[in-house]
Write a structure and sequence with these properties.
Number of helices: 3
Number of strands: 0
Oligomer: single chain
Strand content: under 5%
């Protein structure tokens, strides 16, 4: 009689493990899909290496001249100089 009881308890344990796995595995798959990072893409203009480099140079120039916020003409002139120097350093010519 004890074998019959132990067999039924083992069967119920296996069923509960199967049910847990049937719930856990799909949840893990959904979580993996939800956490993937989406990428931004512009549909009309392809990004060229020159455009990317220019954007990087402008970003760096803006950060470097942030302290010159009181004089906008001096800031714009310095940003233009920095962008030109950056693009030349990357191998571009005007």
């Amino acid at each position: 009689m004890s074998n019959a009881v132990s067999d039924s308890s083992n069967t119920s344990k296996n069923l509960s493990k199967s049910r847990i796995l049937l719930f856990v595995i799909p949840m893990m798959v959904l979580a993996a899909c939800a956490s993937s990072e989406k990428k931004w893409v512009h549909s009309e203009e392809p990004v060229t290496p020159a455009n990317k480099d220019m954007a990087e140079c402008k970003y760096q120039a803006a950060g470097s001249t942030a302290a010159l916020a009181t004089d906008s003409s001096a800031r714009a002139k310095e940003q233009a100089n920095l962008v030109n120097a950056c693009m030349q350093a990357k191998g571009y010519k005007q």
